[in-house]
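Predict both folds.
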Amino acid sequence: MTWGRKHGWPIVGSLLAVTVGVSLAQVPPLRPQQPSVPATGQAQGANHAGAAAARVVALVGQVSILRDSVPWALEVGDSVFPRQVIVTGPDGFARFQLADGSTFEIYPNSRATFRSNPGNWRHLVEVWLGRMKFRIQRWNGQPNPNRVDTPTAVISVRGTAFDVEVSDDEGTTLVVVDEGQVAVQHKLLPRGEPRVLNAGEWIRVYRGQPLAQKSLDKGSVLRRALQAIAEAVYTGIYDSPGGSQRPGGTTPPSGGGVPGGGLPGDTGPQTPPPPPPPDAGGGPPPPP
């Protein structure tokens, strides 16, 4: 017993330490539990994201969004979410539809940010370069306030159809109204009273100049020119190989491609480069 008291306890203590160590090693590490989200909360989040998004309903050519400055090709049925930048190539066109039925179209060689201020849904699009067309639906006959920005102009709309074109790096902006009414203010200079444009009127905004008087599109020259461009693009959508069929068809347009290879996410067919031209001469004649 003397030996047990003197020497046995250390042995028992060691055995207990080993046993406890093995038991703890078998316990899985603790992980922070994720808070449970009710199914209703998930549905509300999905509905919120869907209401804020714009869906591609028509597309032809090279149309992409930027992800970490890398273009990713869009296809019909894709959605664009707040703060995403839309860019088009020289053959690119797309029509987007919002949850309220309003639409906007982006034309070749254009760049725009969709809902750059997610906290304010009325801030619809910021057009940096190129041309876009907007058709804002009314809510049960009531105004549907929206805002479109360019580098030089702030355009307030309530339910109308109009074109916006930014033509150069200075942000020179052309606004042409087809239907309804828009109010235009200078973005960089003291704003003062906006210029209110009605159907058939237009205004051009320059970076360093106060707003000029609005002008009447006599004979609808500007609108007819813009419509001619739109018709040419629509023809490219519906009649080009791989493009959409006329309304009622089922073939969606293919994603945008670039010569020599597609963009990330682009699944459209690629056209092989043409064969090199024959030798124009200058070398020795072939042997007889």
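Second protein follows, with its predicted structure tokens after the sequence.
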Amino acid sequence: MMRVRDKKLSATITVIGFGSLLSEQDARRSCPNLTGFRRAVVRGHRRVFHKVDSNIGGLTQDLHIADWTFSSDDRDDTLVTVFEVPAGEWPVLVAREFDYDLKEVPFEEADTGKQGTGIGCFGFESNAACDERGQNDPMRSKDYARYRRFYSGPIYRQDIFPWSYYLARCLNAAHKQATEYVHNILDHAYLADGETTIRSYLKMHGLSSPPVPAEVLASPHYAQPDITLGQFMERAGYIGLEQLDWLERLL
């Protein structure tokens, strides 16, 4: 696994989709110039819900605010998608994923078995490392500073749980690929404790998404004159777990 330093030498960058980018539609919304969208597997890696989601961090006291990162673990393999984007879009990619440690990781294409490497969204080794990169990397600093106006706490935490709207969005994207992608999330993605699978969590927690907290709806983070939080979530593909009418039978 290699940390990415400079992507200017290549014509394209290979990106690994492991969340909402499992859906080609969502991937094209984020990366309209992508090519070569295909399925793959990253061996020896898992998803872990231990990062505060930058769309909601600081806007509520609720602990259900986590999204996930890639994490190395020989016990798990992760089903993903991979695709290429022009190398000139690298700064945009870094800015969008400002709170992730972007690293190259090997993958194997599902249909051909071809080996390759792509950019994965990993967690930082510490909050100090995340803060240092966010403050000093010119590709990240603007978005990092904007985020820190609303959330000043640790970005990586062990006391938080999945933001249900993010989890539902990722499960829905996985379902668009294949049922095995859904099962891969259920059995090879974990809470921040690194032990509780998402399948176990959903069986305990239930398939419901609480209303968006009033303090989030009122926050200037979303108080844009031309869009409400509800419209933002709809456009971004955020849905409630209870809207996934196929999920209960897969648990």
